Amino acid sequence: MNMELSRRHFMMGASAGLTGTTLGALGFGGIEAAHAQAIRSFRLAQTKEARTICPYCAVSCGMLVFSAQNKANQGKLEVTHIEGDADHPVNRGTLCPKGAGAIDYVRSETRVKYPMYRKAGANKFERVTWDFAMDRIATLMKDDRDANFIEKNNDGVTVNRWPTMAFLAGSSLTNEGGWVTYKVARGLGMLQIENQARI
Amino acid sequence: MTNSWTDIKNADVVWIMGGNAAEAHPCGFKWVTEAKAERGAKLMVVDPRFTRSAAVADHYSPIRAGTDIAFLSGVVNYLLTNDNIHKEYVRHYTNAAYIVKEAYGFNDGLFTGYDEARRSYDRSSWEYEFGPDGFAVRDMTLENPRCVFQLMKKHFALYTPEVVERVTGAPKDKFLKVAEWVASTANGERAMTIMYALGWTQHSSGAQNIRTAAMIQLLCGNIGVPGGGVNALRGHSNVQGITDIGTLTASTPGYMSLPIDSEPTLESHLAKRTFKPLQANQTSYWQNYRKFYVSFLKSMYGDKATKENEFGYNWQPKLDVAYDCLRMFETLFQGKTNGMICQGFNPLMAIAHTKKSAAGLAKLKFLVSIDPIETDTARFWENHGEFNDVDPAKIQTEVFMLPVTSFAEEEGTITNSSRCINWKWKAADPYFESKSDVQILADLFLRIRALYEKGGKGAEPILNISWDYKDAHDPTPDELLKELNGKALVDLKDAEGKVTRPAGQQLASFGEMRDDGSTDGVQWIYTGVYGPSGNLSMRRDNSDPSGLGVYGNWGFSWPANRRIQYNRASADPQGKPWSDAKKYMYWDGTRWTGPDVPDYVPTIPPERATGPFIMNPEGVSRLWARGMLSDGPFPVHYEPFEAPVTNPLFPKVQGNPAARVFRGDLEVFGDAKEFPIVATTYRLVEHFHYWTKAVHINAVLQPEFFVELSEELAKEKGIKHGGWVRVWSKRGSVKGKAVVTKRLKPLKIDGKTVHQVGMPLNFGFIGEAKKASPINTLTPPVGDANAQTPEFKAFLVDIEPIPAPVA
Question: Which of B124, B202, B211, B738 is the most exposed, having the fewest neighbouring CB atoms within 10 Å of its CB?
Fold first, then answer.
């Protein structure tokens, strides 16, 4: 926490000088400088800052994500701004056109907001509850596993496999998410497990 | 990566081939810029297109897509015939001196042991000779005609600069300049890094591409040194970590293996993998496999895993055949798969031969998409006109889209391409009703387990899974990372009975793991990341006392926080740095020291000649692959499965003889008569795979699919810059705007003019960017003979101008 405070103070102190020189050199007048200053203080004083990692390529750039409470949405913390983490030894504050626009990924128009379900043969998704979706998926999986699970092969060797179920695992989730995925998918006896490493 | 992103600044020569870092990994590429600006490093780029990396290179050579091995083998031949190698490194740190069995041979493009009917090799003749002491026989003078070094000279002699030009289209002078710059680093005073990505892996000889690069680096002594290495620029932010975890068909965490049918007991599995050293005093780290494996089983099954039940070994599924993604989609296509979960995976876009993928998906009973954004796969049943022409009423698949947290709404660790494990902190609340992957998987598991508590087939393996989390529905990343690291289950004692690690305490190193069930730990390579001193992935000390870009206290690099792997090789056999310029790890008279963590116990003196390559039982690296690869102990130029010419070197063996093609796919390959143009695919800097077409700013920056072609081809076909074209292969067609460019040039291949076209892969029919047909509509369903990575980077098409679509 101390480190964070001192860094913030440093940035606040430095900002006046920066706006005076850089923006001035670019031909901006005092209005833009004042605007930038206003945003800066808002960001530092009224948002929560977290250090995260860019979701895209495996340079895995350090990111600072700022978020604020949205009073219109039960006070939920929502992302308001993303920038590169200047302390990160690899990207040193830089982000590419993907990382720099990552806020648009968080609030993408096609972001999935609720569990959605498409019935067999239907031509649309419908919103369902988590409970409905998870119960239905668990039942479908249980029924299929019961019907197709192989305990022993033709030679009588215990093989405990479920050949009819496939799991394509993501390569952008955390290691911890990956481990739970492994534990569950393998634990149920799946062999058809792959991630993007092979493609 | 054997080295790290920040280590690239130590390179004197940077060679980018099979990748385009400036475009696909821009913030990592800055370390190339740093090496150029601060050290005067030279950058060279070899690519079918004059890429953004090429635009800032000191030297560029074109190449025909899919002929990398011919080019790289030409470099190997150049180094050997000019004796431009780091001889002492090669003698002591590679298997150049090892004697190969007399039965080995290579004739007309095939190695000994080939079985044409099975399209596979009996690899027994590709082995070393062994002496009566059980160790492999060597000739340290490198003169025995059957030593690896002499076999190499013979094998690569074919790849002269003239042959390289004839096969790859790279002009001789441009090729020679590359070879000369490579050779300039074969001395221990200068270093070269090789940076590659999917431009090398996505070929039917992908693994051999990378192997040839590794051979070049070993001949130059560029492995284990600062500024060196063979560096894979990996794709997704945590694809390294997820590969480590092993959500791959044949894997178990930490690069261990899933049991197969012929391993009915734990011992039968372990005995095959605990490799004994092939020379005296070698480490052969896989001797510890059993400790790592039993510790993994203890994490998987907890108290239920006992010595009596082989630690639950038989609760794991046994593999009958490897279901790599191509086989997975073959199985799906055959109607043998009923359910599929796609977690952050969009296979309709990502797998070769989209038509087959789409037909396969329609045979599923149910599909679950766990992804923050809607994917094309989740809507595969929906009609999108020419881009996804299906009839929803005929598709009986139940489909679920589950909202999952994005990167900013969760915490946990990510392992970057440099193998560095870093913690990320949660920045925002879950979006709408999103839950984390962990919560979703936990919920699913608990519901299924509850069903099996009431009975069902094969209930035992499920009921024995250890699920000992404080909140069963919400295991925390902290708990899970601890589990990955491992702990002592009882008091661990040394030989004198002194307690070295009390029960319950986290392990500091994988050296503490035991094979008697007294330790757990999911994946040994991560042990130390969360030891008794706490969660080291959270470390954010960005000081770099050596100035070499080591950053040893930033996060935790596996294994053992080692930043450059095989760093023992940065010193000569006596333990002295090869040169002052490349001083890194060295013997100070009592121990190995320097800015990094040494490869093995730091007090093992140089006199014992313990090799740097501790995972190999030889202790040295392998110029000769023994039987480890399915398609040969040395690389060979084979043509891509769709090629514009007959293999100029081995006319009887056109494509990789050990690559797999499924019976039903044989008729979907095109030939050069019908499809004369070579095509390749690639990423754009504005886009990440198939995600960012749903991201507003990226859809604005780069809104639509296009086709890059040369001015010469455009003239021949009557295509105008900005006009519309159709590109088709034997498998389907795509449409887009033409980008007529000087960046692509026709090449002369074996006397024939060959055109190449390039297409970005980032578009589809869901999202904000303009709709396009999936790029893999065009690509062939064949994979690398070893990794089964699809051949996306070299295939055949034709092209024609078409009228613009009606707006």
Answer: B124
Tell me if B236 and A196 make a contact (CB, 8 A cut-off): yes
Is B217:B804 a contact under the CB 8 Å cutoff? Answer: no
C-beta atoms surrounding A21 within 10 Å? 10
C-alpha span between B5 and A95 (Å, rounded): 15
Residues of A with Cβ-Cβ distance to B477 under 8 angstroms: 174, 176
Question: Are B397 and B315 part of one and the same domain?
Answer: no
User: What's the pLDDT band for A28 if we cut at 50, 70, 90?
Assistant: low
Task: Mark whether B215 and B353 lie in a shared domain.
Answer: no
pLDDT digits (tens, 9 = 90+) for B462-490: 999 999 999 999 999 999 999 999 999 99
Residues B200 and B79 in one domain: yes
**A–B interface: beta-carbon pairs under 8 A:** 492
Measure the CA–CA gap between B85 and B473, rounded to whole angstroms: 58
Chain B residues whose CB is inside 8 A of the A183 CB are: 300, 445, 465
* Å between B447 CA and nearest CA of chain A: 6
**B281 and B347 housed in the same domain:** no
Structure tokens at B362: 């329609």
Q: How confident is the model at residue A15 (pLDDT cuts 50, 70, 90)?
A: very low
Residue B309 is assigned to a structural domain of this protein: yes
pLDDT band at residue A73 using 50, 70 and 90 as cut-offs? confident
The enclosing domain of B796 has a CATH number of 2.40.40.20
Q: What is the CATH number of the domain that holds B22?
A: 3.40.228.10
In a domain, B583, yes or no: no
Domain contains B647: no
In three-state secondary structure terms, B275 is coil
Residue B400 to residue A173, Cβ atoms within 8 A? no
Which of A7, A51, A52, A74 has the highest number of chain B CBs within 10 A, making it the mutation to test binding with B?
A52
At B807 the pLDDT is 67
Q: What is the pLDDT of residue A44?
A: 72
Local confidence band at A27 (pLDDT 50, 70, 90 cut-offs): low
Low-confidence residues of chain B: pLDDT under 70: 807
Q: Is the backbone of residue B555 left (phi > 0), alpha (psi -120 to 50) or beta? A: left
**DSSP sequence for B434-487:** -B-HHHHHHHHHHHHHHHHHT--TTHHHHHTS----SSTT---HHHHHHHHH-B
Q: Is B745 inside a domain boundary?
A: yes
Residue A17 banded pLDDT, cuts 50, 70, 90: very low
Of the three residues B536, B567, B584, the one that is the final residue of a domain is B536
Domain limits for position B102: 6-232
B164/B170 Cα distance (integer angstroms): 7
ipTM score: 0.97
Count of the separate structural domains present in chain B = 4
